[in-house]
Design a protein that fits this description.
This protein has helices at residues 24-30, 39-56, 64-83, 109-118, 120-130, 142-150, 155-161, 173-195, 201-220, 237-259, 261-265, and strands at 270-278, 283-291. With 293 residues, it is mainly alpha-helical.
C-alpha cells in the first residue's frame, strides 16, 4: 500500500485494520487514530466494535432459525476477542494481511466462528486454499457462502469482522529505547547501593522510582488500561515480562536499602544485582549473585 502521489510504502502498522470499515472502530472508541504500538488493542477494539454493531443491525428478513444462529455466532465472536489470542502474518513482512489459521494454529475471528458452528475441518479446508485471502477473494468457496447464510450473516458482514494483521516479532523503537534507558538506570542504582557504604538516600529513591516505572511499563503492555483485559501483545511480551521482573527487583532492593542503609554497609559478604539489555530484535536479562568468603 503506497501513500497517494508519493510512491512510498505505508508501513503495515499504519495500514487500516479492516478493508471494509478501516479504523472506524478505534476512532469511534478513542477519538483518535491508533498508534503503531497498539496493534493488539487495535484488533481487540475492531472485533468488539463490529460485534456490537452487528447486534444492532440484525436484518428483519432473516428466519427465526437464522436470527438465533446469528446471535449464537456473535456470542462466539465476543468470547473470541475477550480471549485475545489472534493469528500472526508470518509470510508478508511488508503489508498487513488477514490470516485464517497461522503456523502456530491460531485462528482468525471468521475462522473461529466457522470452527465453533461448522467444525474445524471446514476451517482447515478454507485455510488450505485461502490462508491469506480476504473474504471478498473467496468467491470459489460455495461452502463459505452457505455457512454465512445459515449463520444469518452476509459475506460483507463477514468481511467487516475479518481483521488484517501486521508481521509479528518487532519491538517498537520507542518501547525498546525506553526499556533500555530505564533498565540502565535500574542497573546503575543497584550497583551503587551494593558498593557504596552506605549509598545516598536519593540513589535508593531513584532506584525505587525507576523500578516502579519499569514494572508499570511492562504491565501496561499486558493489561489494557481501557478495557482492563489481558491482550497478549505480540513481539513485546518477552520484553514486558523482563521489565516487570527487573522493575520489581529494583524497587524491592532499593526499598530495602533505603530503610537498612547502615545494616547493608556492614559485613557485606554477598551482593545481588541484575542486568538487562533490549533492542528491536531481542532482549536479555539476568541476575548476578556474588559472595565473598
Amino acid at each position: 500500500m503506497a501513500l497517494a502521489g508519493s510512491g512510498r510504502q505505508v508501513p503495515p502498522a499504519l495500514q487500516p485494520v479492516n478493508p471494509v470499515i478501516g479504523d472506524e472502530s478505534f476512532v469511534a472508541t478513542f477519538g483518535r487514530q491508533p498508534r503503531p504500538e497498539e496493534e493488539q488493542l487495535r484488533v481487540y477494539t475492531h472485533l468488539r466494535y463490529v460485534e456490537q454493531l452487528l447486534r444492532k443491525q440484525s436484518p428483519a428478513h432473516l428466519s427465526e432459525a437464522q436470527q438465533q444462529q446469528r446471535s449464537r455466532v456473535l456470542d462466539h465472536l465476543k468470547a473470541y476477542y475477550e480471549r485475545g489470542v489472534f493469528p500472526a502474518n508470518y509470510d508478508y513482512p511488508g503489508e498487513r494481511k488477514p490470516c485464517f489459521i497461522d503456523r502456530d494454529g491460531n485462528i482468525c475471528a471468521v475462522g473461529y466462528l466457522v470452527e465453533q458452528t461448522a467444525g474445524r475441518a471446514l476451517a482447515e479446508a478454507i485455510n488450505q486454499r485461502h490462508q491469506y485471502s480476504r473474504i471478498s477473494e473467496m468467491k470459489d468457496l460455495p461452502e463459505l457462502s452457505a455457512w454465512a447464510e445459515s449463520a444469518g450473516l452476509t459475506l460483507r458482514e463477514c468481511a467487516m469482522i475479518q481483521p488484517e494483521y501486521v508481521p509479528p516479532g518487532a519491538i517498537t523503537k520507542d518501547y525498546a529505547t525506553r526499556s533500555a534507558l530505564v533498565g540502565g538506570l535500574n542497573i546503575a542504582t543497584t550497583l551503587v547501593q551494593q558498593k557504596a557504604t552506605p549509598a545516598p538516600r536519593w540513589v535508593s529513591v531513584l532506584g525505587m522510582a525507576g523500578g516502579a516505572f519499569a514494572f508499570y511499563d511492562g504491565y501496561s503492555h499486558f493489561i489494557d488500561p481501557y478495557y482492563g483485559t489481558y491482550i497478549i501483545p505480540q513481539g513485546e511480551n518477552t520484553l514486558s515480562l523482563i521489565n516487570m521482573a527487573s522493575g520489581s527487583t529494583a524497587f524491592l532492593l532499593s526499598t530495602w536499602h533505603l530503610f537498612h542503609r547502615e545494616k547493608a554497609s556492614q559485613n557485606r559478604k554477598a551482593d545481588i544485582g541484575f542486568f538487562q539489555t533490549a533492542s528491536r530484535t531481542g532482549v536479555g536479562s539476568g541476575i548476578v549473585f556474588t559472595r565473598r568468603f
